[in-house]
Amino acid sequence: MTRRSCAIYATGIVCAFLLIVGIVLLVTRVFPIMINERIKKEITLAENSRVLSSWINPPVPVYMQYFFFNVTNPEEFLAGRAKPHVTQMGPYTYREYRPRENVTFLENGTKIFATNPKSFVFLPDMSVGDPEVDLLTTPNIPFIAVMNEMHSYSFIVRTLVSVFIKSMGVEMFMTRTVHEFLWGFKDPLMAKLHTLKPEVDEYFGLMYKKNGTHEGEFVFHTGEKNYMDYGKIETWNGIRQMNWWSSDQSNMINGTDGSVFHTFLSRKELLYIFAADLCRSIHLAYVNDTEVKGIPAFRFAPPPDVLAAPDENPNNAGFCVPAGDCLGKGVLKVSVCREGAPIVVSFPHFYQADRKYIDAIEGMNPNKEEHETYLDLNPTTGVPIRACKRAQLNVIMKRVPGFPQTKFLNETIFPIMYVNETATIDDDSASQMKTLLLIEKIVPNFPMIIVGMGTILLLVLILLVCRNRQRKNEVKRIDFTEAFHSFATTKDDTAYTPVSNKSDDSPETHTNQPLKNGSYIAMSPVEAQKC
Q: Which DSSP string corresponds to 2-14?
């Protein structure tokens, strides 16, 4: 067997092997299944998983921006002569640190216990002013909360309380520095209540006692049993279901805490988040595809039905407490988990809310770009690439018989402040993510690479076979031509002598030729015969 034949046979064998193996791998989807299972196994909260350390100590910087609404016409509003006019102050930006502590594995590593204390550091370079200097005029929330509590008392008692509060110099609006209003100050009304009821704290602040504290004790699913349960909350403060709202569905604790989600997200699914500060779970729906730092992502955001009125979304009827006492679209009363204070939450500037709330306050300018809450999640890993959580705190101001300060008030949901909590994946984490996604993209294509190599070898094999046949044909043609040429040359240069009739002992024969036994035919050159 020639070297060329060996090369052809070897190429054919390798080509057939690659094509068969590649097609089998393509049909059975071995590599995609293998890489998917590997990702599901790696992205869990198991003790030796790669994501556990970043879950305990998140490397991504989180920023809290606080915006306040400064009231410019409190006297005209209380006198009933004008709508309240507010101007936005901020942002006052803080870096938020949120490590997880007391991490403990439960039930053979299928669940994990943790607390999540948060601390805040002011960032002057990312702020518009000094919170310890800037003054803010805003509704007096402690006073409004006391009035709200007096509803169940008689008119005489309410009147006496009103006189007593007025004698203290407490008004419906107060002016304090941003720092005091945010982190706490000794309020005269709260201090007086503290002497009567020691359990009432004498300090008031929207973030009072929240710097360095956590929102509760959580037990999460690690995702070891089912990757779809990765990061889901099992219990919060020891309970699986709340008891504040008026329906079982509304009291459910659904989803994760918003920091992690299961792998291989779908555009068709709803993602659930339990927001402790909202006292409820909310869902997010797919909006569009996007990209952050070169990483593909799905954007999820709360759809309008999250805070829709019960007549638009009957499932929200359970958030009316007492049952049937409902607000309009885009706002949620959370008094039940705020010690009875008439607190209402919404999106900033009443984004997605009923128009009547926007028109009641001069200075509201809702828009999607600045006021929408959204999450950009990588669909393969479920990791948040960019997040913007935006929520507004409001207070209900209305007429309360016995308190003359409120006689000109119609019920108004008054904006106090809103927060913009943002986080974007850091460059190191983004680089690691892109490497993982590159591997995830290349490995499933190995069968295509194998089939491609087999196809290339098939073309080489066809070329070798064709050239081999061409070479054989050329050899045969050369051999035939040479043989024909040799025959033609011999015919021109020789003649045939007839068989001799003479006896063997002819003298002529003995003279010209040696003696032979028998007759023979001899070929000898002669001159050309004339016809």
A: -HHHHHHHHHHHH
User: The tokens of 82 are what?
Assistant: 């004008």
Q: Would residue 170 be called left, alpha or beta, if left means φ above 0 and alpha means ψ between -120 and 50 degrees?
A: beta
Strands (DSSP E) found in 357-505: 374-377, 384-397, 412-424, 495-496
Tens-place pLDDT, residues 276-306: 888 899 999 999 999 999 999 999 999 999 9
DSSP state of 241: B
Where do we find the tokens 């948040």? 384
Backbone angles phi, psi at 18, to 5 degrees: -65, -45
Beta strands in 278-352 (DSSP E): 280-292, 295-301, 331-333, 343-346
How deeply is 384 buried, as exposed, middle or buried, from its count of CB atoms within 10 A (0-12, 13-18, 19+)?
buried
First and final C-alpha spacing in the chain = 56
SS3 404: helix
Torsion over CA: 244, 247, 248, 254 (sign): negative
If residue 56 lies in a helix (H) or strand (E), which one and from where to where? helix 52-56
Q: How far apart are CA 193 and CA 2, in angstroms?
A: 107
Establish whether the linkage from the previous residue to 322 is cis, with ω within 30° of 0.
yes
Residue count (the chain): 531
Which pLDDT tens digit goes with each residue over 127-162? 999 999 999 999 999 999 999 888 888 889 889 989
What are the distances in angstroms from CA 383 to CA 82, 429, 430, 434?
48, 11, 11, 12
Sign of the CA dihedral running 366, 367, 368, 374? negative
Beta bridge mates, 421: 64, 389
Maximum CA extent, the chain: 177
Mean pLDDT split into 10-residue runs, the chain, 531 residues: 68 76 72 79 86 92 97 94 95 96 92 95 95 96 90 87 90 96 94 89 92 92 92 94 91 94 94 91 96 96 93 91 87 88 94 95 95 96 95 94 90 96 93 86 72 75 73 60 56 50 46 45 44 35
Q: Does the CA dihedral 17-21-27-28 come out positive or negative?
A: positive
* Residue 231 and residue 261 in contact, taking contact as beta carbons nearer than 8 Å: yes
Interatomic CA distance for residues 56 and 103, integer angstroms: 8
User: What is the Cα–Cα distance from 177 to 70, expressed in whole angstroms?
Assistant: 11
pTM for the full predicted model:
0.81
Of 260, 263, 273, which Cα lies nearest the Cα of 302?
Answer: 273
CA distances from 529 to 489, 496, 500, 526 (A): 18, 12, 19, 8
Name residue 299's amino acid: R
What type of residue sits at position 350?
A: F
Query: Which parts of 123-205 fold into alpha helices (H)?
Result: 141-149, 155-167, 178-183, 188-196
β partners of residue 271: 284
Does residue 134 contact residue 122 with C-beta atoms inside 8 Å?
A: no
